[in-house]
Each structure stands twice: as structure tokens, then as C-alpha cells.
């Protein structure tokens, strides 16, 4: 009997080679990431956690934009984390960013970093790769400090595009184990309301991408 691969094994298999050219290729279609980073508005000496940090590209950009922030990143793929650790030190921000291996749906930041909550938490284009994405969002909301914000960027429903373009986009993304989540803005708003957070969502580029911010009151 064949055992299904774990989330870590699956992601390691996908990114074992892709991690070496991931950032070069993804810059052309992971739209909205830089808008997310610009909107973080990290408070002085604030803490920032990225869930599904991948190569740490976003954390490096955030550390450059907010020079006194303390950054933390968690990812289920040990392969990606190898690249991420090299990236943060090559960028000169290694002393301000701590990385750890963990599953987005169940990791505990207190165990990983010795910190329970963060001023800013963000998830960039990871939810659509997580079958139990709701668990990941619920876990992320638990990581947000009072007055803090959870930011999310991911694929939208491509509503502004012809049907054949939508079909091609979904077919292509499926090759990377990516499944855009139907009605994600509305679902996030409902989840936030149920957990005492205030949600704001924005659709970008004709529905290509969505940005969401969930603020803990």
C-alpha cells in the first residue's frame, strides 16, 4: 500500500529544483506582492511573520523597507528554507530574520520563535497551495497581536478575463499544485468576522489577484 506524501514531502518535491529559479520566474505572475509589503506599515521595532515564506524574497523586501523590524518566516519545505537562509544573509538582513520549518495549518510560533503573536502577519500566494487553507487562515489569525493585521495576497477568480483565458490559467496553475479558491474575498471576510477581526479586501487586475487585510481590533 502506497502512503500519500506529507505536505512537507510534496513541497520538497516541487521545489527541490524550482527553488533555484523560483524568484526569477514568479516575479511575472505573483502580482500584488509588493503592494502587500508596502501596505504592512510596520510599527517601530515591530515584529513581522510570513507564513509560507519560501525563498524569503518577501521578508528580504520587507526588511529593506522597514529597517528596524524583526522578521520571522515559517515554511513546510526544508528545501525552500535552505534557499531562504542563504538569501537573507546574502541580502545583509540575516541578523534580523529568523526562519523555521513548520506546517502553516498547525505550527505554533511560540515553539518556533519564542513569540506568540506578531504586529504583522502575511501569507503571499500560499493559501491556494494548501488544501486545508481555512486551517492555515485560522492559525494565522491566532498569530496576530491586538491591533495587528494579517495580510493575504493570492490568486483571484480571473473574472475580468475571457473563459478560455481562465481555463488556461487554471490548467497551468494546476501543474504547480495551485488551486485558486473560489470566492476567497467573501470567505475571508466571513472568517474574520467570526474571529473578531475586521476584513478589507481588494481585487486587482480584473480579478487576477486579491489583497486582503484582517485587522484585530
Query: What's the overall average pLDDT, rounded?
Result: 89
Succession of helices and strands: HHHEHEHEHEHEHHEE
The secondary structure category is alpha/beta
With helices defined by DSSP (H or I, 4 residues minimum), what is the helix count?
A: 9
Helix proportion of residues, in percent?
Answer: 25-40%
Strand arrangement, largest sheet? 3-2-1-4-5-7-6
Strand fraction: 15-25%
CA(first)-CA(last) distance = 49 Å
How many strand units?
A: 7
Global outline = globular
Biggest beta-sheet profile: 7 strands, mixed
Q: What's the SSE blueprint?
A:
Blueprint: H1 7-18, H2 22-26, H3 33-39, E1 47-51, H4 57-65, E2 70-75, H5 78-90, E3 97-101, H6 109-113, E4 118-124, H7 133-142, E5 144-155, H8 163-174, H9 184-194, E6 197-204, E7 209-216
Q: What keywords describe this structure?
A:
217 residues; alpha/beta; 7-stranded mixed β-sheet; 9 helices
Can you tell me about this structure?
With 217 residues, the chain is of the alpha/beta class. The protein is built from 9 helices and 7 strands, in the order αααβαβαβαβαβααββ. A 7-stranded mixed β-sheet has the order 3-2-1-4-5-7-6, sandwiched between helices. β6 and β7 form a beta hairpin. α3 runs parallel beside α4. The radius of gyration is 17 Å and the shape is globular. About 5% of the residues have low confidence.
Amino acid at each position: 500500500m502506497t502512503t500519500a506524501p506529507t505536505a512537507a514531502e510534496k513541497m520538497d518535491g516541487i521545489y527541490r529544483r524550482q527553488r533555484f529559479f523560483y524568484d526569477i520566474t514568479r516575479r511575472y505572475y505573483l502580482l500584488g506582492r509588493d503592494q502587500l509589503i508596502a501596505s504592512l506599515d510596520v510599527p517601530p521595532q515591530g515584529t513581522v511573520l510570513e507564513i509560507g515564506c519560501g525563498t524569503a524574497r518577501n521578508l528580504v523586501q520587507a526588511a529593506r523597507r522597514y529597517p528596524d523590524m524583526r522578521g520571522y518566516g515559517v515554511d513546510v519545505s526544508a528545501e525552500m528554507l535552505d534557499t531562504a537562509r542563504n538569501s537573507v544573509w546574502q541580502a545583509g538582513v540575516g541578523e534580523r530574520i529568523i526562519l523555521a520549518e513548520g506546517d502553516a495549518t498547525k505550527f505554533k510560533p511560540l515553539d518556533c520563535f519564542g513569540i506568540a503573536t506578531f504586529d504583522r502577519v502575511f501569507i503571499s500566494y500560499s493559501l491556494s497551495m494548501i488544501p486545508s487553507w481555512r486551517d492555515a487562515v485560522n492559525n494565522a489569525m491566532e498569530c496576530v497581536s491586538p491591533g495587528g493585521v494579517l495580510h493575504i495576497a493570492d490568486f483571484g477568480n480571473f473574472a475580468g478575463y475571457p473563459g478560455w483565458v481562465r481555463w488556461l490559467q487554471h490548467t497551468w496553475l494546476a501543474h504547480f499544485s495551485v488551486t485558486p479558491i473560489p470566492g476567497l474575498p467573501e470567505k475571508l471576510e466571513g472568517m474574520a468576522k467570526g474571529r473578531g477581526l475586521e476584513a478589507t479586501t481588494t481585487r486587482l487586475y480584473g480579478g487576477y489577484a486579491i489583497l486582503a487585510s484582517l485587522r484585530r481590533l
